Every structure is written in C-alpha cells, then in structure tokens.
Structure to design on (312 residues):
C-alpha cells in the first residue's frame, strides 16, 4: 500500500489539476496568515481562523494524495508539493507520510483502536486520548514534534512511550532513513513561520488562533471515519458527507471507506467507486457527536498483522 509506483495506473493522476489546486491552496493560506496580522482579536479573526481551517484541510487532503504518491506521477514533484503543504500544517511531510501509511497497516487493530480499551489498560488514559483527538490536542502533539525532531530526535522512539500502545506502534514503524529529512523539514517549518510572523508583524495570539482553526478541525476529524466500524484493516472505515461544496473543497476525503479499500486511487475518482458495504453515506457531524460517548471496554483482540514493518 505504501508503494503506489509499482501498481498499474487504472485511474490516471490529474497532475495539472492537482498542481493548480495546490497552488491556490498555498496562495490562500499565505493570504489568510497575512490577514491575521491586519486585524484585532474579534469576530473577523475567528472568521479567518475558520477559513484557514477549511483551506488547510483541503491542503491536507492534497498532501494526503502526495503521501500515497498520487498527487503527481513525477515522484520529486509529488514530494515537493507534499513538503510545501506540510509547512502550513505545520509539520514535516515525511513524518506525516510515515504516520499515515502506517495507519493503513494498523487500522482497527489493537495498535490503533482509540474507541476501545482492553484488559490491563487504564481507561482514564484512553478517555483522555480520545477526547484529545476530538478537541485538537492530537494536532498540538504533532506540531510539538517539530521541536522534538530538531532538538532531541532520540525521544521519538517506542521505548519512551511504552505506556501508550498506538504511539509506540507508530514510532516503531518510522524508517530511520527519513530521520535527517524530517529534521530538515522541521527546521523549514520553524523558519518559515518565524519569518512570516516577523515580516508581516503578526501578533502571536492572532497567529495561534488562526492556525488552531485548522488544528482543531483536523484533529476532530482524524478518527471520525473509523469510530465503531468493523475491526478490519481495510473495511474499518466509513463514507461520510457534509455539504456538497465542502466535500468537493476537501477533495472527497470523506469517501474514506472507498479510500481505504482503494488507497492508490486518486481523489477525483473516489465517489464513483462501487460502495462495497452498500450503505448510504452517513453524516460527518453525527458521526463526530457519536464519538463523545468515549471508548468502551472489549475483550475482542485484533492483532496488527504488520507489526514491526518499517515504512518505505
């Protein structure tokens, strides 16, 4: 699933369209950050924050294409666009990429079942973890990884997070060959945002409010497509919907079951794939609200068949 270049292109990549969309996304994100330095705290700043959240979630959906090597057929261009969009997350693209490809291997196994806790696990910690995902704390931990990658990268090892199985499994899958690249990208993230804050005179509080508009939305949506689904690595996902325009802006990312069943199919074709489970798309908002009931205890165990596999 991680190497799409070796598979036949039944569904061709819309390279020119993707580059055009990515260019518009980057221009819009820069404009919103510039605007954040021109307004006082108030309803207009909140509006800019929501705008950044909507646009960057679209940018993340395009970066997601790059993670699967289906943004552009040229691997260098594909990765360059992914790295650029990652700057506005803000986090290293090659760290996010490894985490996402690992998600396709661990999905719904005990290594990535945030809606359950097992015998011997601390249920309080599992509740904190799930509610952290729902409220944006998950995004904050990823942003903080920029500084870990730069200052003390050795802390990004499974032995330091043995108390948390999902995090340990993620770190176990990281490929050491990308470590230096991740550090350079983390440096680029810090330098770019410090430069933009300085040159555009963006008040720090304004800056954090605006980028948090993305972080809260992104984090809240990270498990909504998987909560309560069948515990199968590919079938454990949902096709959800919002408004038609928003679904298009987010590049069909809510066709999540179709994506997990066909991870090498570009975003533009996902709505036209056969719906294997025959179910209609549910509401993303209702699915999000449902997650607030928290994790449940289960005796069902599903082992990660790819445990120990390093992402290429």
């Amino acid at each position: 699933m991680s190497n799409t270049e070796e598979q036949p292109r039944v569904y061709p990549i819309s390279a020119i369209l993707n580059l055009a969309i990515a260019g518009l996304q980057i221009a819009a994100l820069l404009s919103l950050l510039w605007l954040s330095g021109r307004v006082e705290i108030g309803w207009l700043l909140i509006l800019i924050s929501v705008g950044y959240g909507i646009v960057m979630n679209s940018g993340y959906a395009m970066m997601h294409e790059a993670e699967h090597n289906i943004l552009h057929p040229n691997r260098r261009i594909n990765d360059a666009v992914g790295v650029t969009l990652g700057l506005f997350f803000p986090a290293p693209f090659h760290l996010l990429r490894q985490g996402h490809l690992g998600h396709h291997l661990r999905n719904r196994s005990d290594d990535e079942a945030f809606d359950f806790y097992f015998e011997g696990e601390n249920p309080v910690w599992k509740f904190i973890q799930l509610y952290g995902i729902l409220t944006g704390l998950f995004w904050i931990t990823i942003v903080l990884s920029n500084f870990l990658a730069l200052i003390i990268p050795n802390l990004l090892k499974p032995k330091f997070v043995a108390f948390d199985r999902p995090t340990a499994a993620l770190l176990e899958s990281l490929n050491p060959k990308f470590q230096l690249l991740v550090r350079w990208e983390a440096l680029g993230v810090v330098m770019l945002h410090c430069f933009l804050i300085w040159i555009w005179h963006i008040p720090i509080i304004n800056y954090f409010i605006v980028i948090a508009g993305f972080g809260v939305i992104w984090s809240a949506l990270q498990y909504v497509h998987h909560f309560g689904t069948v515990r199968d690595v590919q079938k454990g996902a949902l096709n959800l919907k919002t408004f038609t325009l928003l679904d298009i802006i987010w590049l069909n990312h809510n066709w999540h079951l179709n994506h997990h069943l066909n991870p090498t199919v570009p975003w533009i074709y996902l709505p036209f794939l056969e719906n294997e489970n025959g179910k209609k798309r549910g509401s993303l908002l209702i699915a999000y609200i449902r997650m607030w009931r928290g994790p449940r205890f289960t005796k069902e165990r599903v082992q990660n068949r790819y445990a120990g596999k390093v992402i290429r």
